[in-house]
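Q: Two folds, back to back.
A: First:
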Amino acid sequence: MSVLVFVEGLNGEVKKSSLEAASYGSQVAQQLGTTTTAIAIGDVQEAALAKLGEQGVSKVLYDGDSRLNQFIADAYVKVIAKAVQQENAKVLVFSNSNIGAAVGAKLAVRLNGSLATNVTALPTIDGGSFVVTRGVFSGKAFADVALTSDLKIVAIKKNSIDITSGGGSATVENFSADLADADFAVSPKETVMQDTNGGVLLPEAAIVVSGGRGLKGPENWHLVEDLAKELGAATACSKPVSDMDWRPHHEHVGQTGITVSPNLYIAIGISGAIQHLAGVNSSKVIVVINKDPEAPFFKAADYGIVGDAFEIVPKIIEAAKALDK
């Protein structure tokens, strides 16, 4: 028996959210007195997989079938299900990503497992009881959920678990689920990936700098980008901004866009409509910059600055540059 962790890759490297999942899985394995195995798919370098040993993973099963470089739900489910059965895994850990949420649900049905998404803390394990804490109501509340099936499937909320380090190197073994063409019968016609331009992928970011209509036009977006660059952050925007084509839609954060849960969310010139808050209120710290003291976003903020963004943001950028010196 082992704890199995599904690992996602990007550009040959393991995603930060998967390092968090591996750290979580290894700590659960310690509680259960067992080992941690990872299953990886697609475009991830072997050296990057071996480094998962630093998070306590002892073995990595790797299926390098190039057809898996693109997310195909049925094929991913087949590969992971075979790994669960081969390793006799009783706990399966994902990152709470689009892939993790979709595949986790399918696996729960296929393997008769109990699934908990958006999990924020290590489980409480007492005898046969396995209880996890998960965020609910867009992060406004928490619920303790008992997973009672033989297979427990857990999807970890991003930025909720610290990445551990200090272990050794994991062994990497080739793995195959003998996929057939039928496993790829349902596939997306096109996959559009966010162009990070060497920066941080928005769903993975620990810090997000976001802008709204208060910036008055796309020609002023350099304020958001410059601050994000200094902080090592991803950039985001409100829905009106993406609707007006100031920014691409994949940067739109909110109820109908991407949901983020960074350690720090900086909102510049965003009023704070409830639809936007639904996508960001899981952030650990929210800073709001707005010249309107009645902007509703201030009610959700941990820190607020009432003032003109065109005066305040350049000062913050200069302060961030000074910290780097």
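A: Second:
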Amino acid sequence: MKTTIELTQNNSNVPLLSKNRWSINAYLFLLPSLAALIVFVFIPFFQTLERSLYLTDNMGKNALFIGLENYILLFKDPSFYNSLFVTLNYVAIVVVVGVLLGFTTALLCQKSFPGVKIFSTAYALPLAIASSGMALVFGVMLNQTTGILNRLLHTNINWIADPKYAIWSVGILTGWLNSGMNFLFFSSGLAGISENLYESASIDGANQFHKLIYITIPSLMPITFFVVVTNIINAFQSFGQIKLLTQGGPGESTNVIVHDIYRNAFMNYRYGYASAESVILFFIIMIFTYFMFRARKRGL
């Protein structure tokens, strides 16, 4: 009897020890990623938070503690509100263009036809192109005198230097760059929809439009939500194409908040002020993401 009890105790300890061992191994595997997150994300974030409370010298070192003065100046600055307005316009253009392009191209490649692989590669190509390189190409295409767009449309518009068109130019460029990744997400979502649903709908007399509205779009809602959230976050952080194409101009018509942070930090040497702007941008993105997840939970 004693031997049986000892064996039972030993056997019950085996899975416990094994479980503990695997838990430790799992944490050891996580350590490199955790270390990278601490070094490259958490430490810079807390340094930015600290710097936003200081007046800095030209080298970016904290020189004088001024508390919330940078935030007070920021909320009194008309340029900051203009940057917020421009950023919201820019994000709306980028998300609408990127999501619609990605969804439409994925829908076009859903059916099998000769050359579909070539079209799929072409639609996913923006994913592999550097935004800075494409911005230079767009700069040539949108040139007022030699650009191909004015030649095709028979117009004489300065797409980059005119405040009415500049935000649209950089917004459409960024949306197109994002459409490659969106195309892949929507394609994988469309491949997961059962053909039985479409066949049953056809038997009930549904046409292609009804199938799109009542089967395809509802089935893609989880992927659409993910695509929209990632596109919004990426759009808020856009910088390279704006810096290369318009440098925030003409005037301040394309001066999105990230470009304004760059201008204050590296052109005006106001590192503390720029840090306060960065903190505000972080909270804006966090609030947007939070409300989108809440809307998703409520089934909106």
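Q: And?
A: The chain has 13 helices and two strands.
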